[in-house]
Design a protein that fits this description.
Oligomer: single chain
Strand order of the largest sheet: 1-4-5-8
Largest sheet: 4 strands, mixed
Number of strands: 10
Helix content: 40-55%
Shape: globular
CATH architecture of the largest domain: Up-down Bundle
Bound molecules: acetoacetyl-coenzyme A
Number of domains: 3
Order of helices and strands: HHHHHHEEEEEEEEHEEHHHH
CATH topology of the largest domain: Butyryl-CoA Dehydrogenase, subunit A, domain 3
Length: 402
């Protein structure tokens, strides 16, 4: 973020007397972090273990986030939102994930579900849906994957067929985060099967549309408080004005959405990893073996140093990617994939090492690190597996777009 008027003490003389880009978050972002952290410590983190145990949607976290405008900070002010930039959204998601990964999917998936509207929706569609998300009356989920079309998203089979002015949807979508809790769903469906990815269109479907239903809750390794279900379309009629953009643009919109939102998964991974490092560091200081704290042993120190180094590298990559998202830079596709991939791989390593630092205690539910490790795993999988992220990065690299 550009800031002007620093005193400039750089020995190189490159920073000295006027405007320059200070490589640090702006004061508003620092204040935002402090505000979210306070809220999370007070209202969200204390419930995290219970949310994980019960598998219930964290309604108390939603209410607390909503009261502070953190449940969907990315919605522009013209639609009644907070107008937070991409870095602000990442800071919110990171801080919430540090306290409760399940709860961090509230702001993350509200952004994922509404990004297609923000990118390609008509003014009328945006005015119709975004204020409800901004006020917290409604949440939005995102429906791209299917049982047989996960990484190969363009291989989807859900059909939308024109019926006069309306569309009729048939098929199913899988792994839909917050399904059952959300009022609205962005759904990608095939409108012209002969055109491959260019025959896919995006629609808004309402939870109460006739012919729409949700499946049973998946039983998962982690993020227990965030329901994941199939969504099913059985002759689901929707009005023609619910199409997002022109027919045939849905796949491009879905991919462009992920360019922006994969960064938020990177932020979630950073938050989970930070929580794991916090516990591991504090435990190593107080746990004694061989007559001294285990933090006094170099083997442990090297582990903690590696964890902190990977975490900070991940955080910086996520923040740079967020800046690129905000500016819609031409290399955003690469950076979105890189930030998500690097941060989630780092989070998996850091949370696994945190369990190791705590030893037997880390493997029990008496400590939160086993939950962090389970929650971290999904960040390597959703919004595109890390194998897909490497495909995306390699294609960008080889096309000379990085
Ligand atoms: N921006 C805009 N348009 C894009 C784009 C982008 N980043 N990437 C692709 N497109 C468009 C282009 O128009 C492209 O056509 P051209 O090549 O003619 O320009 C068209 O889409 C087809 O693109 P590809 O040939 O690259 O498509 P592909 O079939 O080879 O697939 C893929 C590429 C990268 C593997 C893609 O399918 C993919 O990202 N798969 C993973 C899907 C994914 O992330 N799923 C997660 C769902 S969200 C989730 O996890 C749920 C949740 O609730 C959290």
């Amino acid at each position: 973020m550009a800031r002007a008027g620093g005193s400039g003490t750089g020995a190189s003389g490159l920073a000295g007397n006027g405007d320059f880009d200070l490589y640090s978050p702006a004061p508003e972002h620092v204040e935002l972090r402090a505000a979210v952290r306070g809220l999370v410590e007070d209202k969200i983190a204390p419930m995290a273990a219970e949310v994980d145990q019960s598998g219930e949607f964290p309604q108390a976290a939603y209410d607390a986030l909503r009261l502070s405008g953190f449940h969907a900070i990315h919605i522009p002010t013209e639609y009644g939102g907070e107008g937070g930039d991409a870095l602000a959204a990442c800071i919110v998601i990171e801080e919430v994930a540090r306290g409760c990964a399940s709860s961090s999917l509230i702001p993350a998936v509200n952004k994922l579900g509404t990004m297609p509207l923000l990118i390609a929706g008509s003014q009328e569609l945006k005015q119709r849906y975004l204020p409800e998300v901004a006020s917290g009356e409604a949440m939005f989920s995102y429906g791209l994957s299917e049982r047989e079309a996960g990484s190969d998203a363009a291989g989807m089979k859900t059909r939308a067929i024109a019926d006069g002015d309306d569309w009729v949807l048939n098929g199913q979508k899988s792994w839909i985060t917050n399904a059952g809790e959300s009022s609205y769903y962005t759904v990608m469906a095939v409108t012209d099967p002969d055109k491959g990815p260019k025959g896919i269109s995006a629609f808004v479907v309402h939870a109460h549309d006739e012919g729409f239903s949700v499946g049973t809750k998946e039983r998962k390794l982690g993020i227990h408080g965030s329901p994941t279900r199939e969504i099913i379309f059985d002759n689901c009629h929707i009005p023609g004005d619910r199409i997002i953009g022109e027919p045939g643009t849905g796949f491009a919109t879905a991919m462009a959405t992920l360019d922006h939102t994969r960064i938020t998964i990177g932020a979630q991974a950073v938050g989970i990893a930070q929580a794991a490092l916090d516990v591991a560091t504090s435990y190593a200081r107080q746990r004694e073996q061989f007559g001294k704290p285990i933090a006094a042993f170099q083997g442990l120190q090297f582990m903690l140093a590696d964890m902190a180094m990977k975490l900070e590298a991940a955080r910086q990559l996520v923040y740079v990617a967020a800046a690129k998202s905000e500016r819609c830079d031409p290399d955003l596709t690469f950076f979105g994939a890189a930030a998500k991939c690097f941060a989630s791989d780092a989070a998996m390593e850091i949370t696994t090492d945190a369990v190791q630092v705590l030893g037997g205690a880390g493997y029990t539910e008496d400590w939160p690190v086993e939950r962090y490790m389970r929650d971290a795993k999904i960040t390597q999988i959703y919004e595109g597996t890390n194998q897909v992220q490497r495909i995306v990065m390699a294609r960008q690299l080889l096309a000379g777009l990085t």
